[in-house]
Known about the structure:
binds adenosine-5'-diphosphate, Transferase(Phosphotransferase), domain 1, three-stranded antiparallel sheet, Phosphorylase Kinase, domain 1, Arc Repressor Mutant, subunit A, alpha+beta, 3 domains, binds magnesium ion, 11 helices
Amino acid sequence: MRTFTTTLKELTPLDIRLLKIIEHHQRLIDFTPLETIIEYMKKSPYTVEDLLRKLHKRKLIEYRSFPEPAYRLTFFGYDMLAWRFLVDNDYVVAIGRKLGVGKESEVFLGQSADGNTVCIKVHRLGVRNFRYTKRQRQYIAEKPDLQPIFESRISAKREYQALSRLHHTINVPKPLIQNRHIVVMEFIDGIDLYKVKKLEFNDAKIILEEIIDAITTAVIKHGIIHGDLSEFNVMLTYKDALPYIIDWPQWIDLSSPNADEYLARDFHHIVRYFVKKYQIRPQLSIEELVESTLSAARSQKSEKMTQLTEEE
Ligand SMILES: Nc1ncnc2c1ncn2[C@@H]1O[C@H](COP(=O)(O)OP(=O)(O)O)[C@@H](O)[C@H]1O
Ligand SMILES: [Mg+2]
């Protein structure tokens, strides 16, 4: 954490410019040749090489000597660009302790300019479990050559998109800003459902109903299926035990192939948890839940179509 904030403070505008040049080229050519960097920096080779040496020493960039000297950003370098943006634009004025390391992210506490506590989620794909990621996430499996930092950026974008669409209708963290692979969102003062020791039977019953209701509403009103729902991606607020559904980057559009299977799997995972721990199950079976959600979504869609035709 110390290296992290110190590095952020020590970076000069020239360092940032250099990192951005490498970032820009990296999307197309992975490693950017030294010559290109010198050309774009419009500085003497001596100055540029000096800067590169400094950034390399701080592990912000990687070096490759063959077929020509070239550089690319590390995750740390990419982090710095995103943090810099968030701090310079006052989205985040302080970075606090780490809330946790998820399977594909690091999550921090932060403070926004208006004094609110925020949650900062740094997406990190391809760092821990490469295979799992590719299998889970259709949108990335379609782009096999994408580098981990850009996969993570897409992941953050998708999460921001889902949260933006959902937060008015169901309990999800309100998104504040996304930059590169980082999403800043409302901090949920609560606990992960899987960490909750024991709930009262009646509370557990209500919570399961609320979760199913949220999942159903996301599909019916927005055509969004979570795609990775389980007790690991639900938080309960400390204050009134309201369930919030978190972790949305892998969401699936209702119109995509096998959407019904993803929805069934989400229902199955969450119901399995409540059956096992509290012997509670919803009134409807998983098949009935899927069927009723899908038919409600279809009639909502045709209602919208009729409204549109009438307006024409
Ligand atoms: N908005 C939030 N407020 C508070 N804690 C959060 C928030 N979002 C995530 N967390 C914490 O960080 C952990 C990991 O976040 P999550 O979005 O599930 O990412 P991952 O894909 O890595 O599992 C969560 O289990 C939760 O404890
Ligand atoms: Mg999670």
